[in-house]
């Protein structure tokens, strides 16, 4: 059974993966301007979950 902390971590991971997928997809399509809303959301996630960006 998944406890509350594990559920929270999985939610964070899924949210980050979804946003990063959008950024990478835009990059691979060679879009000159990646949607600033997507980039802003990715930045918010990294600030909100600093451990995601830690080594």
Walk me through this protein's architecture.
The structure is a single chain. With 55 residues, the protein is an all-alpha fold. It has one domain (4-53). 69% of the residues lie in helices and 0% in strands. The chain has two helices and no strands. α1 (4-28) runs antiparallel to α2. The longest helix is centred in the first third of the chain and has 25 residues, at 4-28. It is elongated, with a radius of gyration of 13 Å. This is Transcriptional regulator.
Report the span from N to C terminus: 28 Å
Helix-strand category: mainly alpha
* Helix and strand pattern: HH
**SS strand fraction:** under 5%
Q: Tell me the number of helical segments per DSSP (H or I, 4 or more residues long).
A: 2
Helix proportion: 55-70%
Number of domain modules:
1
What integer is the average pLDDT?
76
Query: Mind summarizing the main beta sheet?
Result: none
Q: Please tally the β strands and state the result.
A: 0
How many whole angstroms does the radius of gyration measure? 13 Å
Approximate shape: elongated
Low-confidence stretches: none
Element layout with pairings:
Blueprint: H1 4-28, H2 36-48
Helix pairs in contact: 1-2
Brief description of this entry?
This protein has 55 residues and is mostly helical. It has two helices and no strands.
Keywords:
elongated; mainly alpha; 55 residues; Transcriptional regulator; 2 helices
């Amino acid at each position: 059974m998944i406890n509350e902390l594990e559920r929270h971590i999985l939610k964070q991971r899924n949210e980050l993966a979804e946003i990063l997928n959008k950024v990478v997809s835009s990059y691979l399509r060679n879009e000159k301007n990646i949607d600033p809303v997507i980039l802003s959301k990715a930045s918010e996630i990294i600030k909100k979950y600093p451990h995601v960006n830690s080594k």
